[in-house]
Fold each of these.
Amino acid sequence: MLLSNAFNPDPRVHREAIALIEKGYDVEILCWDRDLKKPLFEIIEGIKIERIYIPSTHGRGSSQILFLFLFWIKALFKTLYKKKIDIVHAHDFDTLPLGFIISRIKKARLVYDAHESYIDMLLNIPSLLKKMIFKAENFFMKRTDLVITVGDILKEYLVKRGAPKACVVGNWQDPEKFVFTLEEKYRILDRFVIQKNQLVIVFIAHLGIERQLPQLIDAVKQSPGVYLILGGYGPCENLAADAAANYSNITYLGYVNPSEIPLYTAVSDIVFYGFDPNVPNAAFSAPNKLFEGLAAGKVILTCDFGEIGKIVKQNNCGIILKDYSIDEIKTALDFLQDNNFTKFSENAKSAGLNLYNWGMAKHELIEQYEYLTPA
């Protein structure tokens, strides 16, 4: 597997690697540590990780290409001395050209794992460069043996662009990991002095500007019957910290270890997902927050865009906001406080068990790999 982050670990990559190891595959991740903070070599749950140190920062814009090329060159030389490789699994487009070259040298199958619409994620680069990347992605994608992606909308889009074979391995979750005892749940509720009649909203993610956090916080400020648990880092972290310092029904956790997210989700009633629907990538959005909420059987609160809007509407497992205005969010919170929303929760739980279960995604991944390596 090729990865352009340091594998901290990356949740999707981690789950896929573990699934393959359980089936008997030998999995090694070759990844780029631009912060030079993680070990060069490491084994996590049987996954062999080798990191390449190329100092850089995130969000460099078009100048990042130079550093990316250096990562490709170092990674290529490292693979030349490795034993036989059966499959090269490139995560996101920034490792796909490298994966293509390695697969041709090693006579291996090439898998492209598109976590999102890569071209629509690039917001601050020249339009000419975007066009070049778009054409390059089409070129390499047509020469893959398999394209894996996160949802049906993105899958159909990539097939139209030339993917010869594509499947969905969603960011789905294991519902069993979201089951906790009452004692474990009450320990969290008591720690934050959450009243039994308060509805609990959880949003633990990257706290970027696009996450609609100011509106959510202002709506909760006006709703004493609601308790908001926030976690994560990003541009809005100071806003979250200030709100928690000044309002008794808001808590900010800072960084949350991924292993703790299921428990915080389990104690909640509502999982909020904010995003900017006008961002091009929103059309394909199938976020982890959605599937965490479904696995735990929680009400989903979001707007109508991408895969998330489609799933919430189809399964009647939450409230679709008209927009992310303060009034609209507060109206939804008032409705949930005044009405029994058990049906939303039941529908979410059913969808998480029967339609969007990691066991089903894992089965699809293994089936596709066995097709690529029939021996």
Amino acid sequence: MLRRARAEDANAVADVFVASFAGLDFLPILHTEAETRGWISATLLPTHEVWVAERDGQVVGFAALGDALLGHLYVRPDAQGRGIGGALLAKAKERRPAGFDLWVFQQNEGARRFYERHGLTCVELTDGSGNEERTPDARYAWSPPRA
């Protein structure tokens, strides 16, 4: 089930984010868990359109949308491979029918394959100098099919 996130979902969203980021062992650790949780509560939820995916009453994934950017899409590692990411991405396409971009780390090959399977195209590769992790990333774009 997908629904709009509420302020009281901040800890559950942070749980998904922290668990997902833990698997990206190529990234430097720049923020404490407490800082990450504070950022999700004080910045991410109030400034983005955030959708959560629930299974058995538990938040297992989320997508955070800006104007034309899918800023974050994470699924708890133990819930991956069950269509949750696809459902969140479909919601992003529904909510941003004119299209959107997203950034993914180049080394996150699983995420890159996922986005490519779902119709996104890699439009730019960078050396990482534009992100706080200073890790090479890739910009993907989704545009609706032309009639």
